[in-house]
Design goal:
The structure is a homodimer. Helices cover 69% and strands 5% of the residues of chain A. By secondary structure, the first copy, chain A, is mainly α. The interface between A and B is medium-sized, with 20 and 20 residues.
Chain lengths: 127, 127
DNA sequence: AATAAAAGTTAGCCTAGGTTAACATTTATT
DNA sequence: AATAAATGTTAACCTAGGCTAACTTTTATT
């Protein structure tokens, strides 16, 4: 596996957003991402260039955005971390869903593999 | 309480480091912090100015550094978050101490109050 | 087809937080 | 006391990631 690409937290957020948007809409556009993430289009534009340079998505000038296989893989990984954390916060700790989402969204970028894995194991054990 | 000062994660790290250094050494100097945090002295220097501007510490040109009451309060709060997370990672999840420290050190800056509080409650309940 | 609207891009600015190189000051040593 | 060493400061640079304003391109409407 070549998933050794190490993105910044910010770029991981963009990737995750594109992944989520692509689930509903067939076409993902810069404006969609900007609206979804509540960021300016130029900010999104630059992030897209960056992700493209990392071969995580395809994008032609003025065109639509499509994740590559690598992009999808990485996005799924990030999203899994997000879901795992959210689930733990809500189900085990009893955090308000909105706050749980928010915390997960920040922690998903910095938590280590070991900690995430152990958290998954822990949740399965407790049930 | 006027602990409504909102620092960046980076500044929280500096504050925590100063707090920990001040426990052992009577005098804390810029060089001590730079060595401890493995950062350059100019970086520390600027951070100190910033913390001083926030009334969290006292520092005179070429002199030593001393946390104010506010600074100590806030540092303790940050350190408590750190300890809580580390404890949870090690004792509940079984994470290697070094990784636990590392993860705690990053998460302590972004975890919400509610989540931290609920985590504390959860740990007391489980025992 | 012409024009208006929407979408995308570029340029340039800002902040935070790191760096190194050079300089100033203080402290220690000879 | 003079000099060397350690410490602290300043200036200038870099990167990442936001932003707005202005411009280009595409798409939709009249």
């Amino acid at each position: 596996m070549r998933s050794s690409i190490k993105l910044t937290g910010s770029l991981e957020d963009y990737l995750e957003a594109i992944y989520l948007l692509a689930k509903d809409k067939s076409e993902v556009r810069i404006t969609d991402i900007a609206v979804f993430m509540n960021l300016s289009k130029p900010s999104v534009n630059r992030a897209i260039s960056n992700l493209k340079a990392n071969a995580l998505l395809e994008h032609e000038r003025y065109g639509t955005i499509k994740l590559t296989e690598d992009g999808i893989l990485l996005a799924k990984e990030i999203y899994f971390r997000h879901e795992t954390l959210t689930k733990f916060f809500i189900e085990n700790l009893g955090i308000d869903p909105e706050i749980a989402q928010n915390d997960a969204c920040k922690i998903e970028h910095i938590i280590s593999h070991q900690t995430l894995n152990k958290l998954v194991a822990y949740m399965n054990k407790i049930i």
